[in-house]
């Protein structure tokens, strides 16, 4: 059965990519992985074919690295939830509280300074190699930029209530794919991507607001036990979606 939670995780990952502390650094990551300058990346004539291939392959393996870490986190969080299965109701309410706090944080109602700290793991491997790009993705997954940290943490608290380890891993896989798929698209269409971000840079603040609203919505759905009911309604309304899970 398609679970609305997974659809929400994919959307949360997509929105995370467009937050103000991830989207602006994407061009620098692209330059670093392709081994080219910002001027070359912005060139209207496009980058050299060899650099373009390097960039796309590196972006794909960077995405694999990020999602690997997220899946491991998700499985670990669900395993913790299983270990404390007798306290599942309490864990559910903790997840609700965390979602509310982070939702208010993204909406700007409260600001939590701790969430702006960043744990950084550096990769010494040359990023233009496949292994280097993968390790760079692992480092990014460990690092949790300030904007991504609250969203990832909220997803992990949801994962503690998933019941089965594979479901927690799948939840974070979906979130990771939602966040990294636009990065691969940016590598494929670097010129148009840079021009688009340049035109819409002033709208990035709204991504945080949408993320905050989503977290509050999920808090309400989980607190009222409505997640499964909405998932069932979606199955009945869009029966073709059952093939997605």
Structure, described:
There is one protein chain. It contains eleven helices and no strands. Helix 8 crosses helix 9 (190-200). It has one domain. The protein has 245 residues and is mainly alpha-helical.
Could you provide a short overview of the structure?
It is globular, with a radius of gyration of 19 Å. It is built from eleven helices and no strands.
- Tell me about the largest β-sheet: none
Structural class: mainly alpha
Low-confidence stretches: 117-123, 241-245
Question: Can you write the helix and strand succession as a string?
Answer: HHHHHHHHHHH
Q: What's the overall geometry?
A: globular
Question: Domains counted in the coordinates: how many?
Answer: 1
Record keyword descriptors for this entry:
single chain, 245 residues, mainly alpha, 11 helices, globular, disordered C terminus
Record the SSE blueprint.
Layout: H1 4-17, H2 26-34, H3 38-42, H4 49-83, H5 88-107, H6 130-143, H7 148-159, H8 165-188, H9 190-200, H10 205-224, H11 227-237
